[in-house]
Automatic annotation (TrEMBL):
It is found in: Membrane. InterPro entries: ADP_ATP_car_bac_type (IPR004667), MFS_trans_sf (IPR036259). The keyword Ubl conjugation does not apply. Belongs to the ADP/ATP translocase tlc family. PANTHER family: ADP,ATP CARRIER PROTEIN 1, PTHR31187. SUPFAM superfamilies: MFS general substrate transporter. This is ADP,ATP carrier protein. GO terms for molecular function: ATP binding; ATP:ADP antiporter activity. Keywords: ATP-binding, Membrane, Nucleotide-binding, Transmembrane, Transmembrane helix, Transport. It holds the Pfam family TLC.
Length: 293
């Protein structure tokens, strides 16, 4: 079965990346659940569309700065430093989450999520070459689906015992776990794209720049992202109306993430591979509108 086709030398780095991605996604899920519940219950919901626009503007600037100043830095060191920064900042928000700190936290949690996942995949690209990645990454990605199920399931009992105001401690724990695992991944790095010489890289850049097929895919992804935000807005407003207390809303988000994690895992195992292998990438992209329906 190609889904688990790994050799003996690949087992440990695959296992470490699986756990690291599990921790990264679990941190994103628990932190996002707190962010959404606090904003929808304690702040003016009419500002939610403004938050989407603000996040897009902030992320554009932050990513530009990140690429400019970190392109030559050690990836594991960046993960460690950013993990420490994220953890300390969440401790601050834990005791100051009120008033206008709520929308600030909303944007900051999105930055944490995006950069944590971005840095994970950049590190994963330094562990396996492109040929290995095609075979191994589906297994690593499954760690995110298991995180959805595990973290989603754990939110309700955690909130019942410790309260919704303490759920960020779980987020901090998972961020710390991902940092610890990244240190274990360090010896397995091979430089990612080191197998490509300069001429290959130049050809690839030219192909990416002028290939209309890639431009069409980029346009479809952008449209999907725009539509998903509209659906996300409607979903959150309906959820906040149906579950008027913070604990109830957090419990609902936990159940939702658990269900979507299980559904995603089933899609990865039984549907995605079959569609891409049998019908190609275009058919896989054409399925996206059906999933939105």
């Amino acid at each position: 079965m190609t889904f688990i086709n790994i050799n003996s030398k690949e087992r440990r780095p695959v296992f470490l990346l699986f756990i690291m991605f599990f921790a990264t996604v679990a941190a994103s899920i628990t932190g996002s659940a707190v962010r959404d519940a606090v904003f929808l219950i304690q702040f003016d919901r009419s500002f939610l569309p403004v938050m989407y626009i603000l996040i897009a503007m902030v992320m554009a600037g932050v990513i530009t700065v990140y690429k400019k100043y970190t392109s030559s830095q050690d990836r594991v060191s960046l993960i460690t430093i950013s993990g420490l920064l994220f953890s300390v900042s969440l401790l601050f928000f834990q005791s100051n989450l009120s008033g206008w700190m709520i929308p600030v936290f909303y944007v900051w949690m999105e930055i944490i999520t995006v950069f944590s996942i971005l840095q994970f995949w950049l590190l994963a690209g330094e562990v396996f070459n492109p040929r290995q990645a095609k075979r191994i990454f589906p297994l690593v990605i499954a760690g995110g689906s298991f995180a959805g199920m595990g973290a989603g399931y754990s939110i309700k009992p955690f909130v019942e015992v410790y309260g919704s105001e303490n759920l960020l401690y779980m987020t901090i724990f998972f961020i710390g776990l991902s940092v610890v695992i990244s240190q274990q991944v360090r010896p397995f790095r091979i430089g990612g794209q080191g197998e490509l010489d300069q001429s290959d890289m130049l050809v690839n850049k030219q192909k990416i720049k002028f290939d209309p097929y890639l431009k069409a895919i980029a346009l479809m992804v952008a449209c999907s992202a725009f539509i998903s935000k509209i659906i996300d807005y409607q979903f959150k407003i309906m959820a906040a109306t149906e579950f008027p207390t913070q604990n109830e809303l957090l419990n609902f988000f936990g159940a939702y993430y658990m269900a979507t994690g299980a559904a995603t895992l089933m899609m990865q195992i039984f549907v995605s591979g079959f569609i891409l292998t049998r019908f190609g990438i275009l058919a896989g992209l054409l399925v996206l509108p059906l999933t939105l329906a």
